[in-house]
Structures are given as structure tokens and as C-alpha cells.
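quick one before i forget lol
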Amino acid sequence: MSDETAQALVAANAELVARRAEADILKRECLATVARGVSGRVEEFVKKAAHQHPEVAKELGAEGLKRLRLELADASAAVASVIDAATEQINWPPNAGSSRVRDDDVHSALFKFLYGERLWSQCDREELPPWGRRVRQDPAAEPLQPEPVCGGG
């Protein structure tokens, strides 16, 4: 290998290391943003579910709704801490030469990381109260749609 080629290789490797460091910063920022948003989204979900299922909200009463909110706040804090610490555990989408990664690809990577036992381990499925099962199993309930929180278009 010529000296010129060796210098170009060293420069390219230095650029690669710098870009990876920048990407790691962006990944941590993305996860911190998602983690901060979890509690608010859970609260939105509770409000929406209460409006969509007024009979369940009435059955729960003020104390039941308060207890539900507290339980969900605890669970969302646990999920947020898992998300916030997951930078190295997520299979992030490759950049594919463009300047930005698509929001859908980031969403998909986060979904794949959280889906299944990692998410369900944060709640006790066996102890899910009857009203929780009823709300979750209602096919007429409109699902919440994810919103982009980081990444590009």
C-alpha cells in the first residue's frame, strides 16, 4: 500500500470514528426524548381510554382511576428507564448513505427492542384487573398511533 493510500485510509477511519460518535450521541438523545415522553403518553392513553369507556371509568370511580394512574405511572417510569439505558441493545437501522435515518425505521427498531417480554415484564399480566382486560380486548377501541419523536422524515 502506498503512503498516499495509507494516509487516505487513516483519514477515512478517523472520519468513521467521528461519525459513529456523533451517531451514538444522537441515539442517546433519541432514547432520552422517548423516555421523557413515556409518562405523558401513558397519561394521554388513560384519558382517552376513560373517554372511550365511560362505563369502566364510572365503575372504577375516582379512587380506582387514581390508583390506575399511580400504577401506570410506576410502570411507565420502569419502561422509561429501560428505554433510556438501551443505546447499545437496540438494533439501530443503518444509515444507507443518506444524511438521515427515517422515523419509521427508528420506530421499528424501538418496537423490536421493546416488544414481547421486555415490555411485558414491566407489568403483571396475571394480575391485570377485569376492567383492564375488557378495555384491552375491545375491538372497537381506537388504537393510539405513534408519533415521530426523533430522526428524519
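fyi The first helix runs from residue 3 to 52.
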